[in-house]
Amino acid sequence: MQTGRLFAALLFSFAATHAAADATFETASALYEAGRFQKALQAFEEVAHAGDGDDQRTTARFYAAQCRIQLGDYATAGSELERLLAELGPDDATPALLFRAGEAALLQGDAERARRRLSDFVDLHAGHAYAPYAWKYL
Question: Quick one: DSSP state of residue 93?
Answer without folding.
Answer: S
